[in-house]
Write a structure and sequence with these properties.
By secondary structure, the chain is of the alpha/beta class. The protein has two domains: 91 residues, no CATH class; 157 residues, no CATH class. Helix content is 43%, strand content 10%. The protein contains eleven helices and six strands. The chain has a six-stranded mixed β-sheet, sandwiched between helices. The longest helix has 21 residues. The chain is elongated, with a radius of gyration of 21 Å.
């Protein structure tokens, strides 16, 4: 069996095979990982099934860093060669619509959650009992390289679907505690007035206090980076008691959420991403 470095050709073949399985999985189609591995083996340089399976796990880790979904059963293995990241980049450059593809809201769980209060809302990763992954910086490096935050920000279908789910969840929570009056008053501000308010949804606590929600949505894991505007930060500081950042994650499979309470820099590292250039 070959035990040398994987060539670009081999990496391109296994990345294409991985995305073929992922497309079948997201479409709800049945597929066999073992059959895919066996079909791939003759096209590689005598790689074993075990090495192919581990390389699939490496691809899962690249997608995890990218803030995307990965294949169930291929737990991310983060000791990734840069050449494999390059191969994923080549595949995405060839099929750029993959990252901005229209969102199937029924598979994202939106349809099933719109009339219920069953959206899982847990603690943010900075306050959970789970330690960060040992190779967190490696994953965040992949996120920066592929601009995972920018990709989510540009995906209007994803952002809209997240706001629809958050809006429905807020109304359902209020209705479940007998506050139908408040549920009817919840407003989708970004839809009605545009993005200038510094939050997307104007909701309420069961006691009638304001809840101003800025919704950030990703298909990826809970630590996927996100963009936040200068205006959103300003509103979060000016209205600390009311403003919350609602982070929706794992959106393509089973949407989950957590809230960040200002000040945001208690939870995340805020890094300048865009500068305005003015002529002298």
């Amino acid at each position: 069996m070959a035990n040398g470095p994987w060539t670009d050709e081999e990496n391109d073949l296994i990345v294409a095979d991985y995305f073929a399985m992922l497309a079948e999985d997201l479409a709800g189609q049945r597929y066999s990982k073992a059959e895919h591995r066996r079909a791939l083996m003759p096209r590689l340089q005598n790689r074993s099934e075990a090495s192919i399976e581990f390389k699939h796990r490496n691809i899962s880790a690249v997608l995890m860093g990218l803030g995307e979904v990965w294949l169930p059963g291929y737990r991310p293995a983060v000791n990734i060669q840069r050449t494999l990241e390059d191969a994923v980049g080549r595949w995405l450059a060839r099929y750029p619509d993959w990252l901005l593809r229209p969102l199937d809201e029924s598979r994202a769980g939106v349809a099933g959650l719109q009339e219920t209060a069953s959206l899982w809302v847990g603690p943010p990763p900075t306050l959970s009992n789970r330690p960060p992954p040992k190779q967190l910086e490696r994953l965040l490096g992949i996120a920066r390289r592929f601009d995972a935050a920018g990709r989510d920000e540009r995906n209007r279908a994803l952002g809209r679907a997240g706001e629809v789910l958050a809006l429905s969840h807020e109304r359902a929570v209020l209705a479940s505690v007998g506050r139908d009056d408040l549920a009817r008053a919840v407003r989708w501000v970004s839809q009605e007035e545009g993005d200038g308010a510094g939050y997307d949804i104007a909701s309420f606590t069961p006691a009638g206090e304001n809840r101003l929600l800025e919704v950030k949505t990703t298909r990826g894991w809970d630590r996927t980076p996100f963009y936040i505007s200068r205006n959103e930060l300003a509103v979060s500081e000016a209205r600390r008691e009311e403003w919350r950042l609602l982070r929706l994650w794992n959106f393509s499979r089973e949407p989950k959420a957590f809230e960040l309470v200002p000040p945001l820099d208690a939870h995340v590292c805020l890094m300048p991403a865009v500068f305005q250039a003015r002529f002298r």
